[in-house]
Specification:
The chain is an alpha+beta fold. Helices cover about 55% and strands about 10% of the residues. The longest helix has 24 residues.
Length: about 525
């Protein structure tokens, strides 16, 4: 069989339903101006108004009050036996409120659901239900949207179209279908359909969030939510690009091209249709495989699950560091492992893009982490936008005690651990720190991959992998990256002792499996929970 021509530039499947030629894709030239316009909206949408922006504020406060009020009443009367039971109850109530309030709040819940390690586990677990368990729109609504955007009767475009959604989330839902072709055959596709009026609803809700955020400063006892206005801005930057599927389809081609240029044949990207893409409808190639959590199924099929994880870490890091583009929303529902061991990436609504000076700053941040250059890392964070441009770097290092030898956190009491977290958060807020969109997406993806290791490769030697990946980057990209940063590649040396110290390990430690690392984390988390519980 002849190799598809689009495989010469993109990481696509070998048996295509159609071939994508970039120069002939009608919707592709619109992507860049659409993306620029979307990001230009963010400052306007997130500028807090002096007065409440309409009746929507009343609706939001009413539903949040119904969620929080009964929980507070029960908590004050000792209704919950443990702190975990209390957190589970408020998480459930907040998830139900988010689903009632609609797409914007559901999307916020989805982002929280991917923040394992950043948010309380009960909140993460509950909001995972927002990923694909959101009630779908009626099929007649779907039909109307597809016919309006694609300009024809559903039956004329598709041989069949499943009335039941494969999955439904905040912005859209997806349906399986069989597409008619000019050759008289039909092919399996997936059709992503945007919920009606979601673009208007999201913009309205962002204005409400922007008005509420300043009133929440210092009132939310979760470190990851310590700066609500900055988080609203971050959320807006993320969601506005999901409101036009032409940007998502362009993201698919950009990621496919990046993976091909890196020689990453362990990943594939479904092909978007060259013509059947609009603001609210996206027709794409259908791929199937093992759910990313189906470890037993993969291993029974002879798939090397450690290899799947290793490929994922390398491809993700290479995309960000070398090309400045990466899938920004990795989670189990967005990944299929094919029978041959390759991984198919899905859902490209959120993509991280690092260009120019920001990519070089990110590269310096990663380099500083492996060489234990503390000042270089803080300077890189400043240049990424995480700290104000006039920040006194030496003062940050001193206030955060980054110039001191790291302490093994497992040797601290619960009270000391909680106090340390509070001290660091307070110091960062005092400097005006915030989490730039690209850094948030990168951290969120690393947290996901961290959790995936626990399921797919719990005995992976973390220290050995760090060393191997560092060597691989030096071999593949050392000359280019050194040239871009203006440094001598022979002067760069990984500080493995510094890496070990970051994990709280002694220099003579030669191995750290993920299982051992997780045990250390669980000990730390238990001490912190026990201390907080004792205070209550």
């Amino acid at each position: 069989m002849t190799e598809p021509t689009d495989r010469s530039w993109g990481a696509f499947t070998g048996d295509p339903p159609w071939v994508v030629e970039r120069d002939e894709v009608r919707w592709l030239p619109l992507a860049v101006p659409l993306r620029r316009r979307a990001q230009g909206e963010v400052p306007v949408l997130t500028r807090p108004s002096r007065r409440p922006p309409g009746a929507r504020v009343v609706t939001v406060l009413r539903h949040l009050g119904r969620a929080v009020g009964p929980w507070l009443w029960g908590k004050r009367r000792g209704r919950y036996a443990t702190a975990s039971e209390s957190r589970t109850e408020i998480a459930r109530r907040l998830r139900e409120a988010a689903e009632t309030l609609g797409p914007t709040y559901i999307k916020l819940g989805q982002i929280i659901s991917s923040g394992e390690g950043l948010f309380p586990p009960e909140l993460v677990t509950e909001f995972k239900k927002c990923r694909d368990q959101v009630p779908p729109e009626p099929f007649e609504v779907v039909r109307r949207t597809v016919e309006q955007d694609l300009g024809g009767r559903l039956e004329d475009i598709f041989e069949s179209f499943d009335t039941e959604a494969l999955a439904a989330a905040s912005i859209a839902q997806v349906h399986a279908a069989r597409l008619r072709t000019d050759a008289g055959r039909s092919i399996d596709v997936v059709v992503k359909v945007q919920r009606p009026s979601v673009d208007r609803l999201v913009r309205r809700d962002l204005r409400v969030m922007a008005w509420l955020a300043p009133h929440l400063v210092g009132r939310i006892p979760v470190a990851a939510l310590a700066n609500p206005p900055a988080l609203v801005e971050l959320f807006a930057e993320t969601i506005v690009e999901e409101l036009d599927f032409r940007m998502e389809a362009a993201n698919m081609l950009d990621i496919a091209e990046m993976l091909h240029e890196l020689g990453q044949d362990g990943y594939v990207v479904p092909r978007p249709h060259p013509e059947l893409v609009s603001r609210r409808v996206l027709v794409m190639e259908r791929v199937s495989g093992f759910n990313f959590d189906d470890v037993a199924g993969m291993q029974d099929a002879g798939i090397d699950t450690e290899g799947v994880i290793r490929t994922g870490m390398i491809a993700f890091m290479e995309g960000a560091l070398v090309h400045g583009v990466f899938h920004g929303d990795l989670h189990g529902g967005n990944l299929f492992v094919l029978a041959d061991g390759r991984t198919a990436l899905l859902d490209f609504g959120i993509v991280g893009r690092l260009t120019g000076a920001r990519r070089l700053a990110f590269l310096r941040l990663m380099l500083g982490a492996t060489t234990n250059d503390v000042r270089g890392q803080i300077a890189a964070l400043r240049d990424l936008g995480a700290l104000p441009i006039d920040t006194d770097l030496d003062a940050v290092i001193r206030d955060l005690r980054l110039d001191q030898t790291p302490v093994d956190p497992t040797t601290l009491t619960g009270e000391e651990l909680v106090a340390e977290v509070q001290r660091v958060v307070k110091a960062l807020l005092a400097y005006g720190a915030k989490l730039p969109k690209e850094l948030m997406l990168y951290v969120k993806n690393m947290v996901f991959l961290d959790g995936a290791i626990a399921r797919l490769a719990p005995d992976l030697d973390i220290l050995a992998e760090i060393t191997a990946i560092s060597m691989l980057f030096a071999e593949r990209h050392g000359e280019r990256l050194s040239r871009e940063l203006g440094i001598d590649p022979t002067s760069v040396e990984i500080d493995l002792d510094g890496v070990k110290a970051g994990f709280g390990l002694e220099p003579d430690t030669n191995q750290l499996t993920y299982r051992e690392l997780q045990q250390r984390r669980e000990l730390i988390q238990k001490r912190m929970r026990d201390h907080v519980g004792a205070l209550r």
